[in-house]
């Protein structure tokens, strides 16, 4: 079973990964975006870490909902509401239980990814964060590490895709040949989860 502290540690580990990879995320957002994905997420997850370290809610669901609200209020770019929705919806699904099973968490995250798809209107293959989140969550039934690896593979698979949503879609055919920044940060999110679940962080 996973308690509130597990989810706090996931968010803290994500903040560290985003900090470490911020320059790369921004570089990926240069040719097919506006070069702010790293700074957007750094601002957001630094705020999430600050909020949760100051006052960790007692339930897993409340931790994720608080994190999601913080992202929505601190990140200006498209990724703020999308990641905010992912975490809020996942947290809402978890309800107010003090501890949740891995199976419950998997179902909740699946609902969270569905909410991102509805909000952004993107489908698999549109070259967005969903191209990492969907295979990642699908592999959660195997293990947290398998989910992280599948998300990483999903991010790499965005390179030959043409973007159909978000800023990159304005480039049309010229979006081909570049890795999607949001899919890359989604792989970081699931990588941080695997590190925390494996007791590495
Ligand atoms: P902005 O595009 O507003 O500058 P960011 O640079 O922070 O925001 O985030 C860009 C990322 O957001 C993209 O790489 C993509 O993965 C994701 N994204 C953009 N629009 C959508 C959408 N409609 N659905 C899903 N993901 C999206
Ligand atoms: Mg951007």
What is shown here, in short?
The protein is mainly alpha-helical and 201 residues long. Helix content is 66%, strand content 2%. The model has no long low-confidence stretch (mean pLDDT 97).
Which SSEs are present, and which pair or pack?
Blueprint: E1 2-3, H1 4-28, H2 37-54, H3 60-74, H4 79-94, E2 99-100, H5 102-120, H6 130-138, H7 144-156, H8 181-197
Antiparallel strand pairs: 1-2
Helix pairs in contact: 1-2, 1-3, 1-8, 2-3, 3-4, 4-5, 5-6, 6-7, 6-8, 7-8
The protein binds adenosine-5'-diphosphate (ADP) and magnesium ion (MG).
Descriptive notes:
- With 201 residues, this protein is mainly alpha-helical.
- It has a single domain (2-197), classed as Serine Threonine Protein Phosphatase 5, Tetratricopeptide repeat (Alpha Horseshoe), CATH 1.25.40.
- Helix content is 66%, strand content 2%.
- The chain has eight helices and two strands, in the order βααααβαααα.
- It has helices spanning 4-28, 37-54, 60-74, 79-94, 102-120, 130-138, 144-156, 181-197; strands at residues 2-3, 99-100.
- The protein has a two-stranded antiparallel ribbon.
- Helix 1 runs antiparallel to helix 2, helix 2 crosses helix 3 and helix 5 (102-120) packs antiparallel against helix 6.
- The longest helix has 25 residues, at 4-28.
- It starts with a strand and ends with a helix.
- The chain binds adenosine-5'-diphosphate and magnesium ion (MG).
- The site of adenosine-5'-diphosphate (ADP) has 23 residues, from helix 2, helix 4 and helix 8.
- Residues 29, 33-34, 36-37, 40, 77-79, 82, 120-122, 128-130, 165-167, 180-183 line the site of adenosine-5'-diphosphate (ADP).
């Amino acid at each position: 079973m996973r308690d509130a502290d597990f989810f706090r540690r996931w968010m803290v580990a994500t903040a560290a990964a985003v900090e470490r990879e911020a320059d790369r995320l921004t570089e990926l957002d240069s040719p097919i975006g506006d070069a702010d994905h790293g700074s957007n997420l750094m601002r957001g997850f630094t705020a999430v870490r600050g909020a949760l370290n100051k006052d960790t809610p007692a339930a897993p669901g409340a931790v994720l909902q608080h994190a999601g609200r913080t992202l929505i209020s601190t990140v200006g770019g498209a990724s703020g509401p999308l990641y905010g929705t992912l975490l809020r919806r996942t947290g809402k699904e978890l309800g107010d239980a003090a501890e949740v099973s891995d199976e419950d968490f998997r179902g909740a995250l699946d609902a969270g990814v569905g909410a991102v798809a509805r909000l952004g209107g993107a489908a698999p293959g549109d070259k967005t964060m969903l191209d990492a989140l969907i295979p990642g969550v699908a592999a959660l039934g195997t293990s947290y590490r398998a989910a992280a690896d599948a998300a990483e593979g999903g991010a790499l698979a965005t390179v030959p895709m043409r973007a159909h949503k978000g800023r990159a879609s304005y480039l049309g055919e010229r979006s081909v040949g570049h890795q999607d920044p949001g899919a890359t940060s989604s792989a970081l999110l699931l990588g941080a989860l695997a590190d925390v679940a494996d007791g590495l962080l």
